[in-house]
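[job 0412] stage=fold_complex status=start
inputs:
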Amino acid sequence: MYDKTKYLAAGDQALVMEFGNSISEEINSKIRSMTAAIEGQNIKGIVELVPTYRSLMIHYDALQVNYSELLESLKALEEQLGSIELPAPQVVEIPTLYGGDYGPDIENVAKHNQMTEGEVIRVHTSKEYLIYMLGFTPGFPYLGGMDESIATPRLETPRTKITAGSVGIAGGQTGIYPIDSPGGWQLIGRTPIRLYDPEREPAILLKAGNYIVFKSIGEKEYQEIEKAVKKGTYQYKSYPKKEEGGQHGTN
Amino acid sequence: MGQIKIIKPGLLTTVQDLGRYGYQQYGVTVSGVMDHVSARLANALVENDEGEGLLEITMQGPEIEFLEDMVIAITGGDLQPWLNGQPIAMARSMLVQKGDKLTFKGMKSGCRSYIAFSGGIDVPVLMGSKSTFTRGKIGGYEGRALKAGDILKVGEPKEPFSSLVDREIYENLYEYNAVVELRVVLGPQEEAFTEAGRRTFFSNEYTVTNECDRMGYRLEGETIEHKDGGDIISDGISMGAIQIPSHGKPIIMMADRQTTGGYTKIGNVITVDLPKAAQVKPGDKIVFKEITLEEAHQLLKGLEDKITILKQQCSRKYGKQEKEVKRTRKFHLKINGKPYNVVVEELK
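[job 0412] stage=fold_complex status=done
writing structure:
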Protein backbone atom coordinates (compact mmCIF):
# COMPACT_ATOMS: atom_id res chain seq x y z
CA MET A 1 0.00 0.00 0.00
CA TYR A 2 1.28 3.48 -0.89
CA ASP A 3 1.97 5.88 1.97
CA LYS A 4 -0.01 8.45 0.09
CA THR A 5 -2.98 7.52 -2.13
CA LYS A 6 -2.56 8.63 -5.74
CA TYR A 7 -5.36 10.64 -7.34
CA LEU A 8 -5.09 10.09 -11.09
CA ALA A 9 -7.11 11.56 -13.96
CA ALA A 10 -8.88 9.07 -16.19
CA GLY A 11 -10.22 11.55 -18.71
CA ASP A 12 -12.36 14.54 -17.84
CA GLN A 13 -15.23 12.60 -16.24
CA ALA A 14 -13.49 9.98 -14.12
CA LEU A 15 -10.65 9.81 -11.64
CA VAL A 16 -8.80 6.94 -10.03
CA MET A 17 -7.82 6.64 -6.40
CA GLU A 18 -4.88 4.24 -6.50
CA PHE A 19 -3.98 2.77 -3.11
CA GLY A 20 -1.08 0.53 -4.02
CA ASN A 21 0.57 -1.57 -6.68
CA SER A 22 -0.16 -5.11 -5.52
CA ILE A 23 -3.05 -7.44 -4.88
CA SER A 24 -3.61 -7.62 -1.15
CA GLU A 25 -6.47 -7.97 1.31
CA GLU A 26 -5.25 -4.86 3.12
CA ILE A 27 -5.58 -2.68 0.00
CA ASN A 28 -8.90 -4.25 -0.87
CA SER A 29 -10.22 -3.53 2.60
CA LYS A 30 -9.26 0.14 2.22
CA ILE A 31 -11.04 0.27 -1.15
CA ARG A 32 -14.12 -1.25 0.41
CA SER A 33 -14.09 1.35 3.20
CA MET A 34 -13.61 4.21 0.77
CA THR A 35 -16.41 2.91 -1.47
CA ALA A 36 -18.78 2.66 1.48
CA ALA A 37 -17.73 6.09 2.77
CA ILE A 38 -18.44 7.75 -0.59
CA GLU A 39 -21.75 5.92 -0.94
CA GLY A 40 -22.72 7.13 2.53
CA GLN A 41 -21.86 10.76 1.78
CA ASN A 42 -23.88 11.40 -1.34
CA ILE A 43 -21.23 13.70 -2.83
CA LYS A 44 -22.68 15.89 -5.56
CA GLY A 45 -21.80 14.90 -9.12
CA ILE A 46 -20.55 11.38 -8.46
CA VAL A 47 -22.07 9.07 -11.05
CA GLU A 48 -20.73 5.68 -10.08
CA LEU A 49 -17.89 3.83 -8.41
CA VAL A 50 -15.83 0.95 -9.79
CA PRO A 51 -13.66 -0.77 -7.20
CA THR A 52 -10.85 -2.94 -8.61
CA TYR A 53 -7.84 -4.82 -7.18
CA ARG A 54 -5.84 -1.84 -6.04
CA SER A 55 -7.84 1.21 -7.02
CA LEU A 56 -11.23 2.85 -7.06
CA MET A 57 -12.51 4.54 -10.23
CA ILE A 58 -14.88 7.40 -9.56
CA HIS A 59 -17.04 8.51 -12.49
CA TYR A 60 -18.30 12.06 -12.07
CA ASP A 61 -20.33 14.60 -13.97
CA ALA A 62 -17.97 17.50 -14.60
CA LEU A 63 -20.92 19.81 -15.28
CA GLN A 64 -22.30 19.20 -11.81
CA VAL A 65 -19.19 19.29 -9.70
CA ASN A 66 -16.03 21.32 -9.76
CA TYR A 67 -13.03 19.01 -10.03
CA SER A 68 -10.91 20.61 -7.33
CA GLU A 69 -13.85 20.62 -4.92
CA LEU A 70 -14.46 16.95 -5.67
CA LEU A 71 -10.80 16.20 -4.94
CA GLU A 72 -11.00 18.06 -1.66
CA SER A 73 -14.11 16.18 -0.53
CA LEU A 74 -12.53 12.86 -1.42
CA LYS A 75 -9.28 13.65 0.36
CA ALA A 76 -11.15 14.82 3.43
CA LEU A 77 -13.20 11.66 3.40
CA GLU A 78 -10.09 9.52 3.03
CA GLU A 79 -8.59 11.10 6.14
CA GLN A 80 -11.68 10.20 8.17
CA LEU A 81 -11.69 6.58 6.98
CA GLY A 82 -10.26 5.21 10.21
CA SER A 83 -13.20 6.55 12.19
CA ILE A 84 -15.95 5.25 9.92
CA GLU A 85 -17.86 2.27 11.29
CA LEU A 86 -18.24 -0.29 8.56
CA PRO A 87 -20.38 -3.42 8.78
CA ALA A 88 -18.41 -6.66 8.42
CA PRO A 89 -18.23 -7.97 4.85
CA GLN A 90 -20.83 -10.57 3.91
CA VAL A 91 -19.96 -14.17 3.14
CA VAL A 92 -22.24 -15.50 0.41
CA GLU A 93 -22.81 -19.24 0.27
CA ILE A 94 -22.52 -20.90 -3.13
CA PRO A 95 -24.13 -24.37 -3.06
CA THR A 96 -22.10 -26.49 -5.49
CA LEU A 97 -22.49 -29.98 -6.90
CA TYR A 98 -18.96 -31.31 -7.38
CA GLY A 99 -17.71 -33.86 -9.92
CA GLY A 100 -19.55 -35.99 -12.47
CA ASP A 101 -21.10 -34.26 -15.45
CA TYR A 102 -21.20 -31.04 -13.43
CA GLY A 103 -17.45 -30.95 -12.81
CA PRO A 104 -15.83 -33.15 -15.46
CA ASP A 105 -12.27 -31.98 -14.70
CA ILE A 106 -12.24 -32.74 -10.97
CA GLU A 107 -10.33 -35.91 -11.80
CA ASN A 108 -7.61 -33.84 -13.55
CA VAL A 109 -7.33 -31.60 -10.51
CA ALA A 110 -7.13 -34.59 -8.14
CA LYS A 111 -4.51 -36.36 -10.26
CA HIS A 112 -2.44 -33.24 -10.79
CA ASN A 113 -2.24 -32.69 -7.04
CA GLN A 114 -2.05 -36.38 -6.08
CA MET A 115 -5.13 -36.39 -3.93
CA THR A 116 -8.61 -37.88 -4.06
CA GLU A 117 -11.63 -36.07 -5.47
CA GLY A 118 -13.05 -35.95 -1.95
CA GLU A 119 -9.93 -34.13 -0.76
CA VAL A 120 -10.21 -31.62 -3.59
CA ILE A 121 -13.78 -30.88 -2.48
CA ARG A 122 -12.76 -30.64 1.17
CA VAL A 123 -9.98 -28.14 0.39
CA HIS A 124 -12.12 -26.14 -2.02
CA THR A 125 -14.98 -25.78 0.47
CA SER A 126 -12.73 -24.99 3.43
CA LYS A 127 -12.00 -21.35 2.60
CA GLU A 128 -13.78 -18.05 2.37
CA TYR A 129 -12.70 -16.37 -0.83
CA LEU A 130 -12.39 -12.59 -1.03
CA ILE A 131 -14.13 -11.02 -4.04
CA TYR A 132 -11.47 -8.54 -5.17
CA MET A 133 -13.53 -7.21 -8.03
CA LEU A 134 -16.14 -8.06 -10.63
CA GLY A 135 -15.46 -7.75 -14.34
CA PHE A 136 -14.72 -9.59 -17.57
CA THR A 137 -18.41 -10.51 -18.00
CA PRO A 138 -21.42 -9.33 -15.97
CA GLY A 139 -21.02 -10.69 -12.45
CA PHE A 140 -17.70 -12.54 -12.91
CA PRO A 141 -15.89 -12.48 -9.55
CA TYR A 142 -12.10 -12.25 -9.34
CA LEU A 143 -11.48 -14.32 -6.20
CA GLY A 144 -8.46 -14.47 -3.96
CA GLY A 145 -7.27 -16.95 -1.42
CA MET A 146 -7.44 -20.39 -3.05
CA ASP A 147 -5.32 -23.06 -1.37
CA GLU A 148 -2.22 -23.76 -3.48
CA SER A 149 -2.61 -27.49 -2.86
CA ILE A 150 -5.38 -27.70 -5.48
CA ALA A 151 -3.82 -25.33 -8.05
CA THR A 152 -3.99 -26.80 -11.57
CA PRO A 153 -3.02 -25.33 -14.95
CA ARG A 154 -5.76 -24.44 -17.44
CA LEU A 155 -6.92 -26.94 -20.02
CA GLU A 156 -4.63 -27.10 -23.05
CA THR A 157 -7.62 -26.75 -25.37
CA PRO A 158 -10.30 -24.40 -24.06
CA ARG A 159 -13.93 -25.46 -24.28
CA THR A 160 -16.10 -23.47 -26.70
CA LYS A 161 -19.00 -23.40 -24.27
CA ILE A 162 -19.04 -23.57 -20.51
CA THR A 163 -22.44 -23.64 -18.84
CA ALA A 164 -23.34 -20.73 -16.57
CA GLY A 165 -22.78 -21.64 -12.92
CA SER A 166 -19.71 -23.78 -13.61
CA VAL A 167 -17.08 -23.65 -10.87
CA GLY A 168 -13.50 -23.97 -12.02
CA ILE A 169 -9.82 -23.69 -11.27
CA ALA A 170 -7.22 -21.94 -13.44
CA GLY A 171 -3.71 -22.02 -12.02
CA GLY A 172 -3.92 -20.70 -8.47
CA GLN A 173 -7.33 -19.09 -8.96
CA THR A 174 -10.84 -20.34 -8.53
CA GLY A 175 -13.95 -18.81 -10.08
CA ILE A 176 -17.53 -19.19 -11.26
CA TYR A 177 -18.86 -18.53 -14.76
CA PRO A 178 -21.91 -16.22 -14.47
CA ILE A 179 -22.99 -16.71 -18.10
CA ASP A 180 -22.40 -19.34 -20.79
CA SER A 181 -19.01 -18.52 -22.26
CA PRO A 182 -15.98 -20.19 -23.79
CA GLY A 183 -13.03 -20.86 -21.47
CA GLY A 184 -10.14 -23.02 -20.42
CA TRP A 185 -10.75 -23.48 -16.71
CA GLN A 186 -10.68 -26.93 -15.12
CA LEU A 187 -14.32 -27.46 -14.19
CA ILE A 188 -14.82 -29.10 -10.80
CA GLY A 189 -18.50 -28.46 -10.15
CA ARG A 190 -21.55 -26.34 -10.83
CA THR A 191 -23.86 -24.16 -8.77
CA PRO A 192 -27.60 -23.98 -9.47
CA ILE A 193 -27.79 -20.36 -8.29
CA ARG A 194 -27.48 -17.45 -10.68
CA LEU A 195 -24.69 -14.95 -10.19
CA TYR A 196 -26.25 -12.86 -12.93
CA ASP A 197 -29.91 -12.59 -13.78
CA PRO A 198 -30.90 -9.40 -15.62
CA GLU A 199 -34.54 -9.86 -14.61
CA ARG A 200 -33.75 -10.11 -10.89
CA GLU A 201 -33.27 -7.24 -8.49
CA PRO A 202 -30.35 -7.05 -7.83
CA ALA A 203 -29.26 -8.46 -11.18
CA ILE A 204 -25.80 -9.29 -9.80
CA LEU A 205 -25.54 -11.41 -6.68
CA LEU A 206 -21.99 -10.60 -5.58
CA LYS A 207 -20.22 -7.39 -4.62
CA ALA A 208 -16.53 -6.53 -4.48
CA GLY A 209 -15.19 -6.63 -0.92
CA ASN A 210 -17.50 -9.44 0.17
CA TYR A 211 -16.58 -13.12 0.36
CA ILE A 212 -17.95 -16.36 -0.96
CA VAL A 213 -17.83 -19.86 0.43
CA PHE A 214 -18.60 -23.03 -1.52
CA LYS A 215 -20.86 -25.64 0.05
CA SER A 216 -20.92 -29.17 -1.31
CA ILE A 217 -24.44 -30.39 -2.18
CA GLY A 218 -25.94 -33.56 -3.68
CA GLU A 219 -27.82 -33.95 -6.93
CA LYS A 220 -31.27 -33.88 -5.29
CA GLU A 221 -30.55 -30.63 -3.49
CA TYR A 222 -29.10 -29.19 -6.72
CA GLN A 223 -32.36 -29.85 -8.50
CA GLU A 224 -34.47 -28.44 -5.68
CA ILE A 225 -32.42 -25.25 -5.57
CA GLU A 226 -32.49 -24.97 -9.36
CA LYS A 227 -36.28 -25.16 -9.30
CA ALA A 228 -36.56 -22.57 -6.52
CA VAL A 229 -34.19 -20.23 -8.38
CA LYS A 230 -36.32 -20.51 -11.51
CA LYS A 231 -39.46 -19.75 -9.54
CA GLY A 232 -37.75 -16.85 -7.79
CA THR A 233 -38.34 -18.36 -4.35
CA TYR A 234 -34.76 -19.37 -3.51
CA GLN A 235 -33.41 -17.73 -0.37
CA TYR A 236 -29.78 -16.75 -0.97
CA LYS A 237 -27.71 -17.48 2.12
CA SER A 238 -25.15 -15.08 3.50
CA TYR A 239 -23.73 -14.13 6.87
CA PRO A 240 -21.34 -11.49 8.26
CA LYS A 241 -17.70 -12.56 8.10
CA LYS A 242 -16.06 -13.33 11.42
CA GLU A 243 -12.93 -11.38 12.26
CA GLU A 244 -9.67 -13.31 11.83
CA GLY A 245 -7.41 -12.05 14.58
CA GLY A 246 -8.22 -8.54 13.51
CA GLN A 247 -5.50 -8.41 10.90
CA HIS A 248 -7.72 -8.23 7.85
CA GLY A 249 -10.62 -6.80 9.74
CA THR A 250 -12.30 -3.86 8.18
CA ASN A 251 -11.90 -1.59 11.14
CA MET B 1 -48.51 3.67 -30.60
CA GLY B 2 -46.52 3.55 -33.86
CA GLN B 3 -44.54 0.76 -35.36
CA ILE B 4 -41.62 0.44 -37.75
CA LYS B 5 -40.52 -2.57 -39.74
CA ILE B 6 -36.93 -3.36 -40.58
CA ILE B 7 -36.81 -4.39 -44.26
CA LYS B 8 -33.00 -4.57 -44.37
CA PRO B 9 -30.95 -4.21 -41.20
CA GLY B 10 -27.88 -2.51 -42.68
CA LEU B 11 -24.41 -3.26 -41.33
CA LEU B 12 -25.12 -2.73 -37.63
CA THR B 13 -28.35 -1.15 -36.42
CA THR B 14 -29.02 -1.21 -32.69
CA VAL B 15 -31.29 0.43 -30.15
CA GLN B 16 -29.23 2.66 -27.83
CA ASP B 17 -29.68 5.39 -25.27
CA LEU B 18 -27.10 7.31 -23.23
CA GLY B 19 -25.86 4.11 -21.56
CA ARG B 20 -26.34 1.66 -18.74
CA TYR B 21 -24.73 3.44 -15.80
CA GLY B 22 -24.49 2.20 -12.23
CA TYR B 23 -23.52 -1.40 -12.94
CA GLN B 24 -19.87 -1.13 -13.95
CA GLN B 25 -18.83 -2.27 -10.48
CA TYR B 26 -20.62 -5.54 -11.28
CA GLY B 27 -18.85 -5.97 -14.60
CA VAL B 28 -21.78 -4.78 -16.72
CA THR B 29 -20.64 -2.82 -19.77
CA VAL B 30 -22.07 0.71 -20.16
CA SER B 31 -22.88 0.50 -23.91
CA GLY B 32 -25.07 3.35 -25.15
CA VAL B 33 -24.57 5.60 -28.14
CA MET B 34 -21.07 6.15 -29.50
CA ASP B 35 -21.78 9.80 -30.37
CA HIS B 36 -23.58 11.30 -27.40
CA VAL B 37 -24.03 14.78 -28.91
CA SER B 38 -25.71 13.64 -32.14
CA ALA B 39 -27.99 11.31 -30.20
CA ARG B 40 -29.06 14.01 -27.75
CA LEU B 41 -29.81 16.43 -30.58
CA ALA B 42 -31.80 13.81 -32.52
CA ASN B 43 -34.01 13.26 -29.50
CA ALA B 44 -34.34 17.01 -28.91
CA LEU B 45 -35.55 17.49 -32.49
CA VAL B 46 -38.55 15.24 -31.87
CA GLU B 47 -39.12 16.54 -28.33
CA ASN B 48 -38.01 13.34 -26.61
CA ASP B 49 -36.04 13.23 -23.39
CA GLU B 50 -32.33 13.26 -24.21
CA GLY B 51 -31.88 9.79 -22.86
CA GLU B 52 -34.68 8.22 -24.89
CA GLY B 53 -33.97 5.09 -26.94
CA LEU B 54 -33.17 5.62 -30.61
CA LEU B 55 -31.47 3.76 -33.46
CA GLU B 56 -27.74 3.92 -34.03
CA ILE B 57 -26.92 2.94 -37.60
CA THR B 58 -23.48 2.20 -38.93
CA MET B 59 -21.79 2.80 -42.30
CA GLN B 60 -24.38 1.03 -44.41
CA GLY B 61 -27.80 2.16 -43.24
CA PRO B 62 -30.94 0.04 -42.89
CA GLU B 63 -34.14 0.09 -44.93
CA ILE B 64 -37.10 0.91 -42.70
CA GLU B 65 -40.82 0.90 -43.46
CA PHE B 66 -43.11 3.01 -41.33
CA LEU B 67 -46.27 1.16 -40.38
CA GLU B 68 -47.88 4.29 -38.97
CA ASP B 69 -47.47 8.06 -39.31
CA MET B 70 -44.77 9.46 -37.07
CA VAL B 71 -42.16 12.20 -36.72
CA ILE B 72 -38.46 11.34 -37.05
CA ALA B 73 -35.12 13.15 -37.11
CA ILE B 74 -31.70 11.97 -38.26
CA THR B 75 -28.40 13.36 -36.98
CA GLY B 76 -24.71 12.45 -36.84
CA GLY B 77 -22.62 11.15 -39.70
CA ASP B 78 -24.22 11.71 -43.10
CA LEU B 79 -25.18 8.36 -44.63
CA GLN B 80 -27.46 10.17 -47.11
CA PRO B 81 -30.98 9.37 -45.97
CA TRP B 82 -33.69 9.05 -48.63
CA LEU B 83 -37.44 8.80 -48.18
CA ASN B 84 -39.37 7.03 -50.92
CA GLY B 85 -36.48 7.61 -53.32
CA GLN B 86 -35.98 11.32 -52.53
CA PRO B 87 -33.11 12.77 -50.48
CA ILE B 88 -34.13 14.23 -47.12
CA ALA B 89 -32.36 16.67 -44.81
CA MET B 90 -30.25 15.72 -41.84
CA ALA B 91 -30.80 17.43 -38.46
CA ARG B 92 -34.40 18.35 -39.25
CA SER B 93 -37.58 16.75 -37.91
CA MET B 94 -40.11 15.52 -40.45
CA LEU B 95 -43.40 13.69 -40.67
CA VAL B 96 -43.27 10.26 -42.28
CA GLN B 97 -46.43 8.46 -43.26
CA LYS B 98 -47.66 4.93 -43.14
CA GLY B 99 -46.03 2.98 -45.96
CA ASP B 100 -43.10 5.38 -46.39
CA LYS B 101 -39.68 3.80 -46.79
CA LEU B 102 -36.46 5.19 -45.40
CA THR B 103 -33.21 4.12 -47.08
CA PHE B 104 -29.62 5.32 -47.02
CA LYS B 105 -27.54 5.91 -50.11
CA GLY B 106 -24.15 5.57 -48.49
CA MET B 107 -21.51 7.24 -46.35
CA LYS B 108 -20.78 10.82 -47.21
CA SER B 109 -19.19 11.93 -43.94
CA GLY B 110 -18.70 10.11 -40.64
CA CYS B 111 -20.06 6.60 -40.26
CA ARG B 112 -22.78 6.60 -37.59
CA SER B 113 -26.19 8.25 -37.71
CA TYR B 114 -28.95 8.43 -35.15
CA ILE B 115 -32.63 8.08 -35.99
CA ALA B 116 -34.92 9.41 -33.29
CA PHE B 117 -38.67 8.76 -33.35
CA SER B 118 -41.08 11.06 -31.56
CA GLY B 119 -42.15 9.05 -28.52
CA GLY B 120 -38.95 6.99 -28.53
CA ILE B 121 -38.38 3.33 -29.24
CA ASP B 122 -40.39 1.18 -26.92
CA VAL B 123 -38.17 -1.67 -25.72
CA PRO B 124 -37.86 -2.98 -22.15
CA VAL B 125 -35.68 -0.97 -19.78
CA LEU B 126 -33.05 -3.34 -18.45
CA MET B 127 -30.91 -2.23 -15.50
CA GLY B 128 -32.02 1.32 -16.11
CA SER B 129 -31.32 1.47 -19.84
CA LYS B 130 -32.63 0.60 -23.29
CA SER B 131 -29.11 0.20 -24.71
CA THR B 132 -28.17 -2.95 -26.60
CA PHE B 133 -25.00 -4.73 -25.51
CA THR B 134 -24.62 -7.29 -28.30
CA ARG B 135 -21.61 -9.13 -26.84
CA GLY B 136 -23.50 -9.73 -23.60
CA LYS B 137 -26.79 -10.32 -25.47
CA ILE B 138 -28.66 -7.86 -23.23
CA GLY B 139 -30.84 -4.80 -23.65
CA GLY B 140 -32.34 -3.10 -26.69
CA TYR B 141 -34.35 -5.32 -28.99
CA GLU B 142 -33.86 -8.93 -27.79
CA GLY B 143 -30.26 -8.13 -26.87
CA ARG B 144 -29.09 -8.06 -30.47
CA ALA B 145 -28.59 -5.98 -33.60
CA LEU B 146 -31.76 -5.60 -35.66
CA LYS B 147 -32.60 -8.12 -38.38
CA ALA B 148 -34.81 -8.06 -41.44
CA GLY B 149 -38.45 -8.53 -40.42
CA ASP B 150 -38.11 -7.06 -36.90
CA ILE B 151 -41.00 -4.84 -35.91
CA LEU B 152 -40.28 -2.19 -33.28
CA LYS B 153 -42.82 -0.20 -31.33
CA VAL B 154 -42.58 3.55 -31.04
CA GLY B 155 -44.01 5.39 -28.03
CA GLU B 156 -46.53 8.21 -27.87
CA PRO B 157 -45.21 11.58 -29.03
CA LYS B 158 -45.28 14.37 -26.45
CA GLU B 159 -46.91 16.84 -28.81
CA PRO B 160 -49.10 16.73 -31.92
CA PHE B 161 -47.20 16.02 -35.14
CA SER B 162 -47.88 19.52 -36.47
CA SER B 163 -45.84 21.13 -33.71
CA LEU B 164 -43.04 18.55 -33.95
CA VAL B 165 -42.18 18.82 -37.64
CA ASP B 166 -39.68 21.14 -39.36
CA ARG B 167 -37.57 21.77 -36.33
CA GLU B 168 -33.96 22.23 -37.22
CA ILE B 169 -30.51 22.25 -35.69
CA TYR B 170 -28.94 25.24 -37.35
CA GLU B 171 -25.30 24.67 -36.61
CA ASN B 172 -22.98 21.76 -37.26
CA LEU B 173 -21.05 21.32 -34.05
CA TYR B 174 -18.73 18.78 -35.61
CA GLU B 175 -17.14 18.09 -38.96
CA TYR B 176 -16.18 14.55 -39.70
CA ASN B 177 -12.90 14.41 -41.61
CA ALA B 178 -10.60 11.59 -42.67
CA VAL B 179 -7.89 13.08 -40.47
CA VAL B 180 -9.17 13.64 -36.98
CA GLU B 181 -7.51 15.49 -34.13
CA LEU B 182 -8.46 14.08 -30.74
CA ARG B 183 -7.54 16.00 -27.65
CA VAL B 184 -6.27 13.93 -24.75
CA VAL B 185 -5.91 14.34 -21.01
CA LEU B 186 -2.90 12.36 -19.74
CA GLY B 187 -3.38 9.51 -17.29
CA PRO B 188 -3.95 7.41 -15.35
CA GLN B 189 -0.75 5.55 -16.38
CA GLU B 190 1.26 8.16 -18.30
CA GLU B 191 4.15 7.38 -15.92
CA ALA B 192 4.43 3.89 -17.43
CA PHE B 193 5.82 5.41 -20.64
CA THR B 194 9.24 6.85 -21.41
CA GLU B 195 9.57 10.51 -22.31
CA ALA B 196 10.28 9.37 -25.87
CA GLY B 197 7.21 7.14 -25.84
CA ARG B 198 4.95 10.03 -24.88
CA ARG B 199 6.53 12.19 -27.58
CA THR B 200 5.95 9.45 -30.18
CA PHE B 201 2.28 9.27 -29.21
CA PHE B 202 1.63 12.99 -29.56
CA SER B 203 3.73 13.63 -32.68
CA ASN B 204 2.62 10.87 -35.04
CA GLU B 205 -0.39 10.05 -37.13
CA TYR B 206 -2.17 6.78 -36.28
CA THR B 207 -4.33 4.84 -38.73
CA VAL B 208 -7.61 3.16 -37.74
CA THR B 209 -7.37 -0.55 -38.60
CA ASN B 210 -10.18 -2.92 -39.57
CA GLU B 211 -10.39 -4.02 -35.93
CA CYS B 212 -12.71 -1.18 -35.18
CA ASP B 213 -16.12 -1.61 -33.59
CA ARG B 214 -18.30 -0.34 -30.77
CA MET B 215 -15.92 -1.86 -28.23
CA GLY B 216 -12.88 0.00 -29.44
CA TYR B 217 -10.46 0.87 -32.22
CA ARG B 218 -7.06 -0.68 -32.74
CA LEU B 219 -4.68 1.81 -34.31
CA GLU B 220 -1.55 1.24 -36.39
CA GLY B 221 1.48 3.53 -36.34
CA GLU B 222 4.76 4.27 -34.57
CA THR B 223 5.39 2.04 -31.55
CA ILE B 224 5.02 3.86 -28.24
CA GLU B 225 7.75 2.99 -25.78
CA HIS B 226 6.95 1.78 -22.27
CA LYS B 227 9.34 1.96 -19.35
CA ASP B 228 8.56 -1.59 -18.27
CA GLY B 229 5.91 -3.24 -20.45
CA GLY B 230 2.23 -2.56 -20.91
CA ASP B 231 0.68 -4.76 -18.23
CA ILE B 232 -0.83 -3.45 -15.04
CA ILE B 233 -3.03 -4.86 -12.31
CA SER B 234 -6.51 -4.51 -13.84
CA ASP B 235 -8.34 -1.28 -13.12
CA GLY B 236 -11.36 0.65 -14.41
CA ILE B 237 -11.70 1.90 -17.99
CA SER B 238 -13.59 5.04 -18.90
CA MET B 239 -15.03 5.97 -22.31
CA GLY B 240 -12.28 7.15 -24.64
CA ALA B 241 -9.44 5.61 -22.63
CA ILE B 242 -6.35 4.98 -24.77
CA GLN B 243 -4.86 1.64 -23.82
CA ILE B 244 -1.39 0.76 -24.97
CA PRO B 245 -0.46 -2.91 -24.46
CA SER B 246 3.14 -4.08 -24.61
CA HIS B 247 3.12 -4.10 -28.44
CA GLY B 248 3.06 -0.31 -28.25
CA LYS B 249 0.07 0.42 -30.50
CA PRO B 250 -2.90 2.38 -29.14
CA ILE B 251 -6.43 1.06 -28.66
CA ILE B 252 -9.21 3.61 -28.07
CA MET B 253 -11.89 2.16 -25.79
CA MET B 254 -15.45 3.03 -26.81
CA ALA B 255 -19.05 2.40 -25.74
CA ASP B 256 -18.98 -1.42 -25.54
CA ARG B 257 -15.63 -1.52 -23.71
CA GLN B 258 -15.18 -3.96 -20.86
CA THR B 259 -15.45 -2.34 -17.43
CA THR B 260 -11.92 -3.22 -16.34
CA GLY B 261 -8.67 -4.04 -18.07
CA GLY B 262 -5.02 -4.80 -17.51
CA TYR B 263 -3.21 -2.56 -20.02
CA THR B 264 -1.52 0.77 -19.42
CA LYS B 265 -3.60 3.79 -20.38
CA ILE B 266 -1.54 6.75 -21.55
CA GLY B 267 -4.49 9.11 -21.61
CA ASN B 268 -8.15 9.61 -22.34
CA VAL B 269 -9.94 11.34 -25.23
CA ILE B 270 -11.82 14.34 -23.81
CA THR B 271 -15.61 14.13 -23.69
CA VAL B 272 -15.99 16.99 -26.16
CA ASP B 273 -14.03 15.05 -28.80
CA LEU B 274 -15.75 11.66 -28.28
CA PRO B 275 -18.39 12.49 -30.94
CA LYS B 276 -15.52 12.95 -33.42
CA ALA B 277 -13.96 9.68 -32.31
CA ALA B 278 -17.36 7.99 -32.70
CA GLN B 279 -17.44 8.81 -36.40
CA VAL B 280 -14.05 7.41 -37.46
CA LYS B 281 -13.78 4.32 -39.64
CA PRO B 282 -11.04 1.99 -40.88
CA GLY B 283 -8.40 3.87 -42.86
CA ASP B 284 -9.03 7.22 -41.15
CA LYS B 285 -6.06 8.94 -39.51
CA ILE B 286 -5.91 10.17 -35.93
CA VAL B 287 -3.55 12.66 -34.34
CA PHE B 288 -3.55 13.15 -30.58
CA LYS B 289 -3.08 16.49 -28.88
CA GLU B 290 -2.38 16.91 -25.20
CA ILE B 291 -4.49 19.35 -23.21
CA THR B 292 -4.90 19.94 -19.49
CA LEU B 293 -7.80 18.68 -17.43
CA GLU B 294 -8.86 22.28 -16.70
CA GLU B 295 -9.03 23.03 -20.43
CA ALA B 296 -11.06 19.85 -21.01
CA HIS B 297 -13.57 20.91 -18.36
CA GLN B 298 -13.82 24.42 -19.86
CA LEU B 299 -14.46 22.94 -23.31
CA LEU B 300 -17.12 20.64 -21.88
CA LYS B 301 -18.97 23.58 -20.32
CA GLY B 302 -18.74 25.45 -23.63
CA LEU B 303 -20.20 22.50 -25.53
CA GLU B 304 -23.03 22.12 -23.05
CA ASP B 305 -23.94 25.81 -23.42
CA LYS B 306 -24.04 25.41 -27.20
CA ILE B 307 -26.23 22.33 -26.99
CA THR B 308 -28.63 24.19 -24.71
CA ILE B 309 -28.91 27.04 -27.24
CA LEU B 310 -29.41 24.67 -30.17
CA LYS B 311 -32.13 22.83 -28.31
CA GLN B 312 -33.90 26.09 -27.48
CA GLN B 313 -33.70 27.20 -31.10
CA CYS B 314 -35.18 24.02 -32.41
CA SER B 315 -38.09 24.01 -29.97
CA ARG B 316 -38.88 27.69 -30.74
CA LYS B 317 -39.76 26.80 -34.32
CA TYR B 318 -43.15 28.19 -35.29
CA GLY B 319 -42.83 31.00 -32.79
CA LYS B 320 -43.88 28.65 -30.06
CA GLN B 321 -43.80 30.19 -26.59
CA GLU B 322 -41.22 28.81 -24.27
CA LYS B 323 -43.26 27.14 -21.60
CA GLU B 324 -42.16 26.18 -18.17
CA VAL B 325 -43.83 23.05 -16.99
CA LYS B 326 -44.29 22.77 -13.24
CA ARG B 327 -45.87 19.36 -13.22
CA THR B 328 -46.88 16.72 -15.74
CA ARG B 329 -49.56 14.11 -15.17
CA LYS B 330 -50.46 11.29 -17.51
CA PHE B 331 -53.86 9.62 -17.72
CA HIS B 332 -55.15 6.69 -19.68
CA LEU B 333 -58.82 7.34 -20.41
CA LYS B 334 -61.48 5.33 -22.13
CA ILE B 335 -64.27 7.27 -23.78
CA ASN B 336 -66.96 5.30 -25.60
CA GLY B 337 -64.67 2.29 -25.48
CA LYS B 338 -61.80 4.08 -27.21
CA PRO B 339 -58.56 4.46 -25.26
CA TYR B 340 -56.89 7.86 -25.01
CA ASN B 341 -53.61 8.92 -23.49
CA VAL B 342 -53.96 12.33 -21.92
CA VAL B 343 -51.10 14.47 -20.65
CA VAL B 344 -51.90 17.38 -18.39
CA GLU B 345 -49.16 19.98 -18.01
CA GLU B 346 -49.39 22.54 -15.26
CA LEU B 347 -47.67 25.71 -16.51
CA LYS B 348 -45.96 28.42 -14.49
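[job 0412] summary: Chain B touches chain A through 42 residues (CB under 8 Å).
[job 0412] exit 0
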